[in-house]
Design goal:
Blueprint lengths: L5 H14 L1 H15 L1 H6 L3 H5 L2 H19 L10 H10 L5 H17 L5 H29 L7 E13 L2 E8 L13 E7 L5 E7 L9 E6 L12 H9 L5 E5 L14 E6 L3 H14 L5 E7 L8 H9 L4 E7 L9 H4 L2 E4 L14 E5 L2 H13 L7 E4 L10
Parallel strand pairs: 7-8, 7-11, 8-9, 9-10, 11-12
Antiparallel strand pairs: 1-2, 1-6, 2-5, 3-4, 3-6
Helix pairs in contact: 1-5, 1-8, 2-5, 2-7, 6-8, 7-8, 10-11
The structure holds flavin-adenine dinucleotide and protoporphyrin IX containing FE (HEM).
Length: about 400
């Protein structure tokens, strides 16, 4: 909770801080990486730094947290922090690192707002920072404890057991522990971080959803190669490296699984809507449902460029086939050349962009969305029109969370 002396100061200065958060976060990262270049090479995603996505996500989170604090000074708004804590845990962030981040973030606030930052204003924003930091530290400590590890000790070597090309741009990798023990448990929908050493020596980390159910001796991830579209947009560093170099028998540095988009227990109806590579958490959820509650009603929606580019297309149809009360609705930008396998024929296939307005969706449905932001925005809007409560619509973004700022 925010102290009585800080609450009015934060309320009065929030508009000025909020309006400058873009510049503040830019300066924050610049100064932190000047002091610690190793963090940019070995911990932070340098593409998200180059394209500004991480700055925007940080600014959005600080603004949402401070606004909620000002509106309800007696409560700590933990709701906005769950996704961040899970991401941090998958990277092995430790409490001591919050001191460095706090110093540079508050230093950037002072640099941007100048004389407006009196000692009282600085103290009030220091309090906001530490409320946020301590909430994250506590959540991360709980996540580490639940995973049975010391703070930050999430990384281990795993061997690639098998590599399969799933579509022209997508490959899956089955991973197993090098000591032969079963892989750690996880919840369907969770992801792991993977760290690779790139040709310039930087060790870059990216997240990949586990694309098969828990309970196997192995994990599976499915990676889409991010291709360069023009001179201004380079090819993705880690996905291209994995496609070019990762082969069965090699070792990858992989974190324990984390993530807060997970399938709820119970028997209520579900709707899983994905586009492109956003299919990966859905595969894990469906695979899990086929084992633990095959009678659950599930509406599965998937949008892709074409049947040939739809990774795990037959596997998706087979999983839906194992759930007697599930239906599969596919949208392809072009259906040309669709092979006629019997599994795929059971699906409702349409051409064009996904449009669920004509589907029957009961109001007690819980929905999970994963795909590009415009796809998820459109599906979410349609679901709310169908009468779903906003609280029943959950989503996963394959990048920093820009839902609030875009
Ligand atoms: C929770 C979560 C789960 C995920 N699950 C999956 C999954 O199951 N499968 C999967 O394939 N991916 C998944 N992702 C995405 C994955 O983590 C990576 O983001 C993805 O593989 C791209 O990484 P990359 O290193 O290849 O590309 P990056 O090098 O990170 O580049 C990303 C994009 O930024 C662009 N870019 C880079 N530098 C610049 C620049 N200077 N200016 C402008 N644009 C630039 C690139 O062209 C590219 O389009 C997930 C992400 C999250 C957060
Ligand atoms: C109160 C303090 C902090 C806040 C508010 C914060 C906020 C955030 C946010 C909003 C994200 C993006 C999450 C997403 O949507 O994917 C993120 C990711 C991240 N954070 Fe933090 N963070 C804090 C502290 C730290 C600390 C102490 C470190 C360690 C040095 C750290 C390292 C990272 C890294 C490496 C990422 C992933 C970056 C990327 O993938 O581009 N953060 N953080």
């Amino acid at each position: 909770m925010l102290s009585t002396q800080s609450a009015p100061i934060v309320r009065a200065t929030l508009p000025a801080v909020g309006a400058s958060l873009g510049t503040i976060t830019e300066l924050f990262y610049r100064h932190m990486f000047e002091e610690r270049p190793d963090l940019l090479r070995g911990l932070f995603n340098r593409a998200n730094q180059a394209n500004g996505a991480q700055r925007e996500a940080l600014a959005g989170a600080v603004a949402a947290f401070a606004t909620a604090l000002v509106e309800h000074p007696d409560k700590r708004p933990d709701a906005v922090l769950g996704r961040i804590a899970n991401k941090h845990a998958s990277l092995g962030i430790t409490p001591d690192q919050y001191v460095l981040v706090g110093r540079h973030l508050l230093g950037a606030v002072k640099e941007v707002l100048g004389d407006a930052v009196t000692p009282a204003v600085a103290a009030a924003w220091d309090e906001v920072y530490w409320l946020m930091a301590n909430a994250l530290i506590a959540m991360e400590a709980r996540l580490y404890a639940e995973a049975g590890v010391e703070n930050g000790v999430v990384w281990h070597d795993m061997e690639i057991d098998e590599r399969t090309e799933e579509s022209p741009d997508t490959a899956s990798f089955v991973l197993r522990r090098r000591d032969g023990l079963p892989t750690e448990p996880f919840l369907p929908g969770q992801y792991v971080s993977v760290q690779v050493e790139l040709p310039d020596g930087a060790q870059q980390i990216r997240q990949y959803s586990l694309s098969a159910a828990p309970g196997h001796k192995t994990w599976r991830i499915t990676v889409k190669r991010e291709r360069s579209t023009d001179d201004l947009v380079p090819e993705g560093e880690v996905s291209s490296w994995l496609h070019a170099h990762a082969r069965a028998g090699q070792t990858l540095k992989v974190s324990l699984p984390f993530g807060d988009l997970v399938l709820p227990d119970g028997d209520g109806p579900l709707l899983l809507a994905s586009a492109g590579i956003g299919i990966t958490p859905m595969l894990s959820m469906l695979d899990h449902l086929a084992t633990v509650s095959p009678d659950r009603p599930v509406t599965v929606i998937h949008a892709d460029r074409s049947p040939a580019q739809h990774a795990h297309r037959l596997e998706l149809a087979e999983l839906v086939h194992q759930l007697p009360r599930a239906s599969l609705h596919l949208w392809y930008e072009t259906v040309a050349g669709a092979p006629g396998e019997p599994e795929a024929q059971a699906a409702h296939v349409r051409e064009g962009r996904a449009d669920i307005t004509g589907l029957t969706v009961s109001q007690d449905t819980t929905a999970f969305l994963c795909g590009p932001l415009p796809f998820m925005r459109a599906v979410r809007g349609d679901l709310l029109t169908h009468g779903l409560s906003p609280a029943a619509v959950h989503y996963e973004l394959f990048g920093p969370d820009l839902w609030l700022s875009k």
